[in-house]
Amino acid sequence: MTIEEVKNCIRDVYDFPVPGIVFKDLTTAFKNPSCMKFFEETMYDLYKDKGITKVIGIESRGFIMAPILGNKMGVGFVPIRKKGKLPAETIEVGYAKEYGIDIIQLHKDALVPDDVVLIHDDLLATGGTMQAAFELVKMFGVKKIYANFLVELDFLNGRQKFDSDVDVQSLIHY
Ligand code: AMP
Description:
The chain is α/β, with parallel strands linked by helices. It is 26% helix and 34% strand. It has one domain (50-173): Rossmann fold (3-Layer(aba) Sandwich). A hairpin with a 7-residue loop joins strand 1 and strand 2. Helix 3 (33-47) crosses helix 4 (65-73).
């Protein structure tokens, strides 16, 4: 499957969730098995040799591909969740989004310093969400952090928020 064919499966929804936003709806790609295979295999090829020990998904659209990839790589899945959803002791970081503000949390025992971590989310917009996720994961003193997105909105320059030593990869660019 080509990038253009995958792009044709991603639906633009205008003025969602607020006026002025063009929402990249990936549900239309997730229901297509060829797109799912493309996502799974492209991500696996990018990260299979990196020594990754945990794949983190960011709630909630990061929860679709992150466990699939973790399972394929034979490593565990860890959820970053919105405030108030994780049941045990947590640490948290607050951040601003393309629309609205949010707080994300990890369980205090979710990671160990020996971990090499891949953080996955469906889409990079302003970069606020992933920047907050980095901050959260860095608190554990892990060895290395990789960041992955299915889609990157290049015109929002979210990538500029990350330090140059952070490895950021997106499968599809707009
Ligand atoms: P940001 O923190 O601005 O990079 O926003 C990224 C998060 O918000 C991701 O979890 C996306 O699911 C969601 N998001 C932001 N903007 C869009 C958009 N235009 N289309 C689809 N999802 C978006």
